[in-house]
Amino acid sequence: MGLLDGKVAAVTGAGNGIGRAVALELARAGARVVVNDYGVTVDGRTPSSAAAETVVKEIEARGGQAVANAESVATMAGGQAIVDAALGRFGDLHIVVCCAGILRERMIFNMSEEDWDAVIAVHLKGHFTVLRPATRHMREKKYGRIVTFTSVAGLEGSPGQPNYAAAKEGIVGLTRSTALAMAKYGVTVNCISPTAETRMTERLPDARRAQAAAPPEAVAPVVAFLASDRAAHVTGQILHVRGNQVALWSHPAPLRAVTSREGWTPEALADVYDQALGQDRLRRLDALGIAWPPRPDC
Ligand SMILES: NC(=O)c1ccc[n+]([C@@H]2O[C@H](COP(=O)([O-])OP(=O)(O)OC[C@H]3O[C@@H](n4cnc5c(N)ncnc54)[C@H](O)[C@@H]3O)[C@@H](O)[C@H]2O)c1
User: Quick check: pTM over 0.85?
Assistant: First the structure.
């Protein structure tokens, strides 16, 4: 018996990389799968249905059941069509995994509105477009497993990817909020932060690529676990997966607080700030070799 026998899953961005590995793994575990992929380049251009169709053929060749869907998750109609494909072809929807993604890297001061909007649309809105119709169905059925995708770029910040990092941190907020909203309906919502070598990491500098040297297939069993009944008690969690390591991330919480009886003036806060609150140093300042505080000659 497979862990996901009888289940129906929809995986967005399943034509390449991590999404493809997840679709193959869910099918191997017994799920029938909607393989969604808009079939675009890493920067989101020149759509094609070939990517989704190829993965469906791979699943079928291994004895599984799947249907291709080449809609864009960036539109409400696309998200609805993905859910409709599951309900229409397989009669239900138990599992949603959101892997669709693109990159348009620019420093904040050089970023165009188009590059900002395109990345937010595929990642952040591209989760909402699928989750809205999916949660409506899951709420009625009182069953569901949702797996979202964030990134260390979102969790820690990424100087050359402000659009991507903002979308990815937004997805964490969406994950927590949807987990809270769906708890009473028995629906779990968890978030994966992956590190895996895919076409998306091809343009990273060599040192960063070396860190990513783990196959996308390593992420898939973690998603299959979260999608299964064995994880019915796990919700609102952020798991980082790289190769054979799975790490649980913390939720933001206040570190220190200071209260003034009379209310604050800027000067009064300045007087006590360093001692009373200090800073929670950005982890990536040191990792990226960024000097802070700035050296006097800068
Ligand atoms: N690879 C990593 O190390 C890494 C690190 C952090 C986060 N992630 C995240 O993991 C997820 C998968 O990334 P990947 O590395 O497998 O990338 P990938 O480029 O290999 O796959 C992404 C897929 O999404 C599809 N896609 C793009 N726009 C779409 C749209 N509008 N609608 C539907 N499909 C669309 C693409 O055609 C592609 O097949 C992404 O959310 C990515 O941000 C990956």
Answer: yes
